[in-house]
Amino acid sequence: MPKVLISDALSNAAVQIFKDRGIEVDFQPNLGKDKDKLAAIIGGYDGLAVRSATKVSPKILEKADKLKVIGRAGIGVDNVDIPAATARGIIVMNTPFGNSITTAEHAITLMLALARQIPQADISTQAGKWEKNRFMGVEITGKTLGVVGCGNIGSIVAERGVGLRMKVIAYDPFLSPERALELGVEKVELDELFKRADFITLHTPLTEKTRNIVGADAIAKLKPGVRIINCARGGLVDEKALRAALDSGKVAGAAFDVFSTEPATENPLFGHPNVICTPHLGAATTEAQENVALQVAEQMSDYLLRGAISNAVNFPSITAEEAPKLKPFIALAEKLGSFAGQLTESEIKRVRISYEGAVAQMKTKALTSAAVAGLLRPMLQDINVVSAPSIAKERGIVIEETTREMAGDYESLITVTVETANQTRGVSGTVFADGRPRIVNIKGIRMDAEFGPSMIYITNLDKPGFIGRFSSTLGEAGINIATFHVGREAPGGNAVALIEIDGDLPDEVLAKVRALPQVQQAKPLRF
User: According to the model, what pLDDT value does residue 268 have?
Assistant: First the structure.
């Protein structure tokens, strides 16, 4: 039975989902604040469900020997060290849709409050003052709203802005012209947005590219009198530079729900008369909290019980229906990669993976990850299907993926071709009706061989006597042959053999095999 730790506050309904699905739950809603205790016990769990309070650091992940999945109830995953989790093969999921409306509504609320100075007027009025002339506001109708980041939340804000009769412009490198037209927004470059917008609202994740996206240089380009709203992530705005712009009057006002350091007990923006601050309330509605909690419980349960992957930030999504169909092909892809990797002794330059037939309609990104993991594991050891693509990229290995609808003699065919400075080697495989992966082609030579735990791969000249001499050599060493598969280009030409044996092949026996007439190469393989 899988075991899940919940280290932040999550609704009882979410806890019940885990229990109803047959998953053991340890609900410790305040554990996220105690890093040492979390690190001490995390090794006993298959899943970890968190909100924003728990910081999943490399130190904690080092202790997470069993951990398979981290579920973040919410959209932001900056409290989880994604590279460290990926390196350990841990799927990291978020819930990008559960609180989108709530956060978008909060951004619109802050924009309206900023335009009319609602919080300041409320404090003044309740203090017994009647400062009607002090709180002169601005209309938003006809103003230009600049949306930085037009994903799930940003697009909702953009639609609401259009509904408020604002002119909406958006910056997002991934926003297509068709989607912009559908939303009723104008897609612009970031500098143009800064120059034109009367209100700017931020809806991007925090990355190295977006950190301080509104910094001193950007602020210098802003339209005088602009108002800035941030309900996305602290760190997107240089708060000291913004405070200076507020003091000078270049920026008319700012409304922030997120801060570079949280909990924010002090901040450069605090105390300015034209600043509105809320304590990270973007997702703080009853509906949103329930939605994201239920969603993360469902997603984690589906993964732990059925292998389905939804909303993962470090691996392709796989539905519950796809998972059982994909499983034997993931095994095939990994074994084909492993076969090529164990035979590769020089630097890999390029890997070409082709999918033909029915398998080409499956989630090939997941299959490619498996193939690359199998390929690199003989050289790097500590690698998995989650970390493989990023490690290959770091090492400058080019991964090419192609698909074809037809697969010739097979319903499905996967081919892994590895290119080094010295040679190019290809191996193909399929999965038959029995669900077992098979090698069906090596270097263009046809064969039909199942994978075994211990195997020997031989290239030789197709001459009489080879099989007899080889079998005698292993027999004299007391090594039993389980299966023996051969293939050749043409009679008397190049041939290959793939032999499964019981147990390991000692070095001295391998040396005798290599010394046999006609043997060109002999390599022990492990699967």
Answer: 97
